[in-house]
Amino acid sequence: MIFLGAGASAPFNIPTTTRLTEDMRSLLTSHGKLLEEIDDFFEFTYDRKPNYENILTILRDLGTPERRSRFYDGFINRFPEYKGKKLNFDEIIDEMYNRIIEYCTSFVCGKQAFTPKKLEEIFRETYDLLFAVCPSDIVFTTNYDPSLELWCQKRNIVLSDQTHVTQNPEIKTFSTANDPVFTKTTGLAAAESPIIGLVRLHGSVWVYDTTDNKMVKLQRPKDKLLFSDLYPFLTNKKPVMIFPGQEERLSRGQWDRLYQFFKDKLERRCVVIGYSFRDEVINRVFIDNLVAGRIGRIFIIDPRPEEVKSNLLYGQQISPNQQHRIITIEAKFGDRDLIDKFAFYFKANKEGFITRMENIRNYSKKSLNLVVD
């Protein structure tokens, strides 16, 4: 399995969690007391400061306590003066959503968009390399940006992501709750019909709820004409993005199935790129599967991998042998020397990776015309 966090999107100039948290805190400068209380709650309960997703979740809880997250009761116990109050932070939440959407799509649309040449360079150093190293692995991610979708379009590779084609080629609809099929994959080892599986655990800036109780996924940036045609049929004008702590939504239909699928697929080897392990729900799956012996190795690729490993192991009781199965690699996704580190830690031939990367780029020259049901 490949597991991608915010650091995997950094090569596309998409801010990491640190930058987004700074933005979130700046939007709350007029609510300094509340921000101090949110800080106090997370430091007291989790021994860390909250990130932007945590803060957004608390703000939403205070506005709609009937849909509260797992953080709400603990926050109210610590600050009972908020109990029974409904506070409106819609403007701040909407502004933060807008910033996330802009950040996640600016590399492909708008004034800050990369040139085709620049985007090609980044793809070569990121996804080309990743899938040369892990050609058969399914991808799970908590990221919201569409960089992997755009790489697949560029490379002419079919992406299987629990969606089905519709009459409009630019819109896909998600599988129904009773559809047992999640993802069909061949991996990139199948030269004639490569299919990569992708599961987005927390939604995407391209995914929206519609008025007929369905979710749809766009195939291109929302500023195109397509989006204006679709807009009247959206239940919520904000994309479907689920932040850690909002498990009440995860327990319904689609998201519950995705998490169960994640648990089932997390086995043998997992390559984790740019994920900080700040979500205890996801951490629990990693730890449970590691203790159960389902995971052989976890490779953590990050500029501060030991810190990330500490986040995963925080409060956990696992044996030294199990801890040794977590391998830390100090690197950024997109670094030119990452291929050498992959070759070293995977005990593989660098030249073999280079050949696979060239094969991946050759897919761009083929017309695959594949449809995944």
Sequence of secondary-structure elements: EHHHHHHHEHEEEEEEHHHEHEHHEHH
Oligomer: single chain
* Low-confidence region ranges: 367-373
Residues in β-strands, percent: 5-15%
Please work out how many helical segments DSSP would assign: 16
So what's the overall shape? globular
Question: Short summary of the structure?
Answer:
This protein has 16 helices and 11 strands. It is an alpha/beta fold and 373 residues long.
Describe this structure in words.
This protein folds into two domains: 2-12 and 114-365, no CATH class; 17-103, no CATH class. The chain has 16 helices and eleven strands. It has helices spanning 17-27, 32-46, 52-63, 72-78, 90-105, 116-125, 127-133, 147-155, 225-230, 247-250, 254-265, 280-291, 305-313, 320-323, 338-345, 350-362; strands at residues 2-4, 139-141, 158-160, 163-165, 171-174, 195-200, 207-209, 215-218, 268-273, 295-302, 326-330. The protein is an alpha/beta fold. 36% of the residues are buried. Residues 367-373 have low confidence and may be disordered. The longest helix is centred in the N-terminal third of the chain and has 16 residues, at 90-105. The strands form two sheets. Strands 3-6-2-1-9-10-11 form a seven-stranded parallel β-sheet.
